[in-house]
What we know:
With 359 residues, this protein is of the alpha/beta class. It has helices spanning 3-14, 51-57, 85-91, 110-117, 128-134, 136-144, 174-185, 194-200, 245-248, 251-256, 274-283, 295-303, 331-335, and strands at residues 28-33, 36-42, 67-72, 95-100, 121-123, 148-155, 189-193, 215-219, 239-243, 261-264, 267-268, 271-272, 288-291, 309-315, 341-347, 352-358. The protein has 2 domains: 3-138, Cytidine Deaminase, domain 2, CATH 3.40.140; 145-358, Dihydrofolate Reductase, subunit A, CATH 3.40.430.
Amino acid sequence: MNDNFFMERCLKLAARGAGFVSPNPMVGCVIVKNGKIIAEGYHQKFGQAHAEINALKKIKFQAKEATLYCNLEPCFHQGKTPPCVHQIINSGVARVVVGSLDANPQTAGKSLALFQKNKIQVTKNILKDECLELNRSFFKWIKLKLPYVVLKSAISLDGKITPAGKKTGWITGVKARERVQEIRAGCDALLVGIGTVLNDDPRLNVRNKKLKQPVRIILDTHLKISPKARIFSVKVGRIVLCTSKKSFLSLKAKALGKKATFLPVSLEGGYIKLPELLQKLGKMGISSLLVEGGAKVNTSFLAKGLVDEIIFHRSSQNQGPKALKMTTKPLKSLIKKRKWLLKSVQPLSSDDFELVYQK
């Protein structure tokens, strides 16, 4: 067993915090002595103890001559909790191994420098790419204060998003829809356009009550949503209606005020100005945004280059020329200006596959 082995364990532990720790990063910690793991922990919930502290608690903060592994540089600054760096030093560890540096300027490199100043050996960049990948949303948000945008779409083999001749309906099977629940739970917020709400009347929630409910955001320029829409029937989780400044001041907005939070945004060509919306969501602490739009919303996000990742749930069936397309413009023309890398392909069932592309 080597550094890579223990860092892989850190990553597995860290992933358990998905959906619960944002806008903090997902972090796992493993403490090793004489080649054996003596304690481990992970950051479980935003505002609660960090991974390193959860691990050190299990050995009563006594880690003399041990090695502490962490997929992200331990924090140096005071936040919701005290900085981890001092408690790690006081525990007596002889060596600290990290996967990646913290991009937060309040910490970046400072903790490692302090470890070295206290005669603690430091090793960095172990499984760096994997560590950066796990917290890709955090790294974008902490640097730019913008959410990492994931566009997810269920499509047929011929690129359609509805069954032939219908405005709504399932393209993929049960397993794919179960996977969507996991993806939603792992994101801070979920966004759809008012067209999806009017056509499908979805709840947009995560069915598993043990998982975190994302903030549900609706692009509704002219406030067409009905007070009886099913999305309001789910009492857990926050609903944000993104509308024009004029609609925000309307009587209907006042009537809906108890059901949702309003986020007025400037218009561009009669539609919500998406770059401004993303800036406002970033200021709200939303570091990851899942877009489950129809053709218009998909086209707007892709045309403006606002998407960081695309997830296709592709069925093996064709739906024909009468079915609705994923975008209002040819998809190839919307994505050709950027280099998209196919990161993964995995079967969801005998008929459906998940394809993940990243910039």
